[in-house]
Amino acid sequence: MFDVPLLVESAHWRQRVDQVLVVDCTPEVQIERTLLRSGLTRPAIEQIIASQVSRAERLKAADMVIFNVGLTLDELARQVHQIRAALRL
Question: Residue 65 pairs with which residues in a beta bridge?
Fold first, then answer.
């Protein structure tokens, strides 16, 4: 298992994995979470997001998706465990 934030942007990584799991959220939630942890300004965050592969392209590359909006930590953990079991990890 690899944690590769820019996997979709990298042809190198996509060829080395069997499955891709994307943890997704809405763009607004992504911005809000980044504002809370990074110290960056909203325009700076929006510029970074604009320079990356689009959300639609990330979702298209995904074999599995966890939509991480409105989930409790227990619900998120349950989804992760289900995926882990499905992948036999």
Answer: 22
C-alpha 62/C-alpha 38 separation (Å) is 26
Q: Tens-digit pLDDT profile for the chain (89 aa)?
A: 888 888 888 878 878 898 999 999 999 999 999 999 999 999 999 999 999 999 999 999 999 999 999 999 999 999 999 999 998 88
Q: Looking at domain 7-86, which CATH architecture does it have? A: 3-Layer(aba) Sandwich (3.40)
Distances (CA, A) of 82 to 1, 86, 88: 15, 6, 10
